[in-house]
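Please decode residue identities from the backbone states below.
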């Protein structure tokens, strides 16, 4: 048994840094529903500037950021086009349909997280009373279920052009936009220049305890603020949380390169283990999906065997697992993870009962 747990279930498990805790302690606060929290206001200005948008809004989570964005662009019965592996489609309880009345139309995500432009164009509805009205295209960058792939600037721009030619809005779920920007060496603002709205998170790779934001035009943010209120997301002295998010933005973005390097190290090590299959070349950021090909072992059984050795990695399919490198995982830990996987594959424990399939 290892002395310390190595937690690769997600980058959401990251805990606030001492600088964040200090900033939270020191934060001046006010009632943000009155627009009077100076720290929230500072964060929103900082986010708008970093994303090159007119305004931004602090929200409690990535799920809320996506929901209020969709609700701001679309009315009930309107249609949103998105990938069949989009987080909004797969992992948000269908909230945009359940709460916003927005009809999702999926087209296949390519392995690199993109949607084919031709299929996108074909999915945009024409004028016909049988059809819902297409209002929105949603992209995801980096793309979680497609292995943390970073959508290229030229691609996002091309989707933006297509959307505006058809009078459709473009939203980017940028829960890990910071990872994409670091991996591509492009500024976050440039990467979402073509988007009408973007949601970003502070509590994933950046290690803040809570919080996300959406950014876009003044008018979009006015609508998003209303949508946030109706879903119960109007917070009061939220500056306590915004303070940590400011530290996250100022101090934690550039170091994501370390997480990416560790993910590559992990993928290359896994590729060398008999009984494991992984496309190491496809690992661009901090997410590594890999498969168990050793016939006696399932994804859930491997996950359970690793947990017994202090390595936490979620199963994401009958033979698939997802490892997410993060702030608390060092290069030396990767060595230990690889040893644990190798041992588990060599001596499979087939009696594991866990069957949960996580994201
Ligand atoms: N993703 C989580 C979970 O859903 C399990 C994870 O561990 O990766 N967009 C993307 C692309 C995301 O990956 C996530 C969270 C969200 C939105 C939602 O963010 P939260 O969890 O803050 O609501």
């Amino acid at each position: 048994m290892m002395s310390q747990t190595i937690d690769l279930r997600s980058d959401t498990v990251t805990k606030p840094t001492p600088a964040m805790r200090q900033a939270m302690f020191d934060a001046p606060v006010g009632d943000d529903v009155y627009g009077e929290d100076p720290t929230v206001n500072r964060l929103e200005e900082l986010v708008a500037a970093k994303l090159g948008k007119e305004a931004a809004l602090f929200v409690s989570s990535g799920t809320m950021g996506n929901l209020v964005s969709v609700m701001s662009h679309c009315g009930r019965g309107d249609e949103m086009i998105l990938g069949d592996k989009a987080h909004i489609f797969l992992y948000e309880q269908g909230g945009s349909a359940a709460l916003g009345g927005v009809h999702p139309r999926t087209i296949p995500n390519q392995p690199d997280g993109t949607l084919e432009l031709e299929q996108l164009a074909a999915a945009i509805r024409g004028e016909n009373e049988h059809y819902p009205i297409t209002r929105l295209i949603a992209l995801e960058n980096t793309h979680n279920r497609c292995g943390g792939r970073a959508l290229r600037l030229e691609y996002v721009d091309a989707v933006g052009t297509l959307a505006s030619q058809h009078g459709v809005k473009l939203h980017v779920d940028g829960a890990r936009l910071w990872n994409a920007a670091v991996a591509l060496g492009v500024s976050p603002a440039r990467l979402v220049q073509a988007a009408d709205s973007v949601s970003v998170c502070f509590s994933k790779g950046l290690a803040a305890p809570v919080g996300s934001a959406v950014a876009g035009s003044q008018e979009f943010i006015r609508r998003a603020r209303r949508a946030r209120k109706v879903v119960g997301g109007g917070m009061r002295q939220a500056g306590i949380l915004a303070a940590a998010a400011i530290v996250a933005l100022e101090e934690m973005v550039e170091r994501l390169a370390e997480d990416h390097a560790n993910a590559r190290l992990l993928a290359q090590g896994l590729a060398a283990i008999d009984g494991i299959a992984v496309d190491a070349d496809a690992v661009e950021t901090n997410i590594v999906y890999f498969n168990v090909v050793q016939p006696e072992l399932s994804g859930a059984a491997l996950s359970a065997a690793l947990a017994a050795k202090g390595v936490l990695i979620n199963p994401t399919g009958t033979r698939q697992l997802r490892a997410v490198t993060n702030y608390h995982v060092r290069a030396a830990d990767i060595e230990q993870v690889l040893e644990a996987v190798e041992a588990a594959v060599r001596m499979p424990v087939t009696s594991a009962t866990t069957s949960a399939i996580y994201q």
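Observation: Residues 226 and 310 are 44 Å apart (CA to CA).
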